[in-house]
Amino acid sequence: MKKLTSLFISVVMLLVFATGVQAQTVAPPVAVLLDKEQLTFDSGHAFIEKATTLVPAEAFLEGLDYELRWDRANTTLRASKGELSFVLETGKTEAMANNEAHQLRAAPKIVNGTLYAPLRFLAENAGYRIDWDAESRAAALALQDNKGFFWKVEKDGVELYLLGSIHVGNDEMYPIRPELNVAYANSDHLVLEVNMAAPMDEQTMKELQKKYMLYDDNTTLPDHIDAEMYRQIQTILKENGAPETFLDTFKPWMVYISLDNMKSRLGGFEAGLGIDMYFAQKATASGKSILELESHDSQYSQFNHFSDGLIASMIKELLETFHQPDNGTETLADLWRSGDEAALAEMLEAMKEIPEYYKTTIIDRNAGMIEKIEGYLGDEKKETYFVIAGSFHMIGKDGIVNALKEKGYTVTRL
After folding, report:
1. What fold characterizes domain 7-143?
2. In whole angstroms, what is the distance from residue 269 CA to residue 204 CA?
3. Cis upstream peptide for 222 (omega within 30°)
4. Are strands 189-192 and 289-292 parallel, antiparallel or unpaired?
């Protein structure tokens, strides 16, 4: 992409005559910076209206190397760059970005012959992160270069997308890479390991808890783990404002999951910001079909059948590292942002040192996922599927990507 300079060349269009909109006086300007260099626009300047920063849309997008086309009859701007695109219609609070509809807080408008549109909408959907400095009234843009682990699978005119995910995230992972949103928008179905965005009814949750999570023999957690480990768990719960007996009714595997989630939250990571949840929420809002590779039942069953020794060793390691500032979640998030498959593969190899865990979590689960994915690829309707699973399921000798290659599919890293 051509380097964005501090001086944008505006698109010369007599919009005021085409639309009949009269000249207006704009609000005080807002500074827009890229890599600490302030951008200027020949056709106007950014300003705030209705708590939304508006920017000269044509000049801004042209500076990002988008090709522009103005529909005079419908007062609509269309912009494209490769697979990325925008459609902005004056006076309309719904706009298109990368083939998806978005609701805007402020509609695009023409002021003094220049089309203005929300800066955040344009920047984030073009792949730029915005940091706002209220004191100096400045918006700083930086290219968000989060690569992720993303592949396209093709055979006999059918295509499918694979996205390796991490199930928790933070603000640094967003905005999402625009190419991912394009592929998602062009897909007929979203496929998740499990749709965590779907509400679970109370009866189903009670049944799952009784079946997998809770003791039914009048014993409690202290009866199943050593006293020192239980004491450490009580200390962590107390430190975080929970009753010391909060986890007593749960089996050790559920205790491990609860403590691991707590550690992730303390490190600034949330399940609500995970890649799976991001796309699940988009699909739920738009009504896109959501399918599942697994189920809550199958995932809970997996943990419930781990040996007591394996779960005890996992809890022990978690307790030893609980208060350390760096953790596996942060490392995994860094690898996802950089797209470093080699480093991810090293972490996967380390799992093999615990054969029980690797076989159950990777080999056995991958087999079921691969079977379902092949079913999608054999869809007679030739519909497109956007499949998301944990990044570790995608890579390595036993991974989904390698299995599909061996079965004759063309798999391309994007």
Report:
1. Copper Amine Oxidase; Chain A, domain 1 (3.30.457)
2. 27
3. no
4. parallel
Split at pLDDT 50, 70, 90, the class of 213 is: very high
Helix (H) or strand (E) holding 62: helix 57-63
> Rounded to an integer, what distance in angstroms lies between the CA atom of residue 211 and that of residue 303?
12
Average pLDDT, the chain: 90
- Judged by DSSP in three states, 141 sits in strand
How do 114-118 and 109-111 pair as beta strands?
Answer: antiparallel
Per-domain residue ranges of the chain: 7-143, 149-413
Specify which of 19-28, 80-89, 264-273 reaches the highest per-range mean pLDDT.
Answer: 80-89
Task: Return the exposure string of 112-137: e unless at least 16 CB atoms fall within 10 Å of the residue's CB, then b.
Answer: ebbbbbbbbbbbbbbbbbbeeeeeee
Residue type, 241: G
Tokens matching residue 173: 């992972």
Q: For the segment 145-181, what is each residue's pLDDT rounded down to a tens digit? A: 899 999 999 999 899 999 999 999 999 999 999 999 9
Q: How confident is the model at residue 281 (pLDDT cuts 50, 70, 90)?
A: very high
Q: Which parts of 57-127 are beta strand (E)?
A: 67-71, 76-81, 84-89, 94-97, 100-103, 109-111, 114-118
Q: Which of 89-93, 142-146, 264-268 is most confident?
A: 89-93
Phi, psi (deg, nearest 5) at residue 124: -65, -35
Q: Which amino acid is at 140?
A: A
Q: pTM of this prediction? A: 0.88
Which stretch of DSSP H or E encloses residue 183? helix 178-185
> pLDDT tens for residues 116-141?
999 999 999 999 999 988 888 899 99
Instruction: Report strand pairing: 76-81 vs 67-71.
Output: antiparallel
Question: Sign of the CA dihedral 318, 323, 324, 325?
Answer: positive
